[in-house]
Amino acid sequence: MEEVYDFQEDDIGRVILESSEKVGSLANQSSVQINVEGTEFPVAVNLDRGKISRAFINLFSNAIRYAESRVDVLLKYDGSNVYIEFNDDGPGFKEEETERVFERFFVGRKGDTGLGLAITKAIVEKHGGKIKARNNISGASITVVLPRSAKPV
Q: N or C: which end of the chain has fewer CB within 10 A?
């Protein structure tokens, strides 16, 4: 049975901040600092608030699990898309992992069930978006690209 999505205009920055608050205790337990930038001005996106929040919580939780001391999230946007980068200062991905991390049941070094990123990818794609993993200078980076006027896919 297919999940039902309820798309409405909402401030994506507020959803990111609320998601970061929900993982605050996990970050504190792991001695990881969360920094969120780019949410100063409202950016309206057509989204299912509950579903996209679940995706962001998954991304925050994974970044915290692998981070040494910090997780940086940056929201950027242009006229048609929003870009949300989740960066941690952990060991990064093994090269062969960047293409596989969104597969169901793929478990990384500190992974759990291998479902979190697969669910996240499905949610992002249902919003008409894309998600990509890569290594950055000091750790892993996952970028979510969402159209500002997502229509159910």
A: N
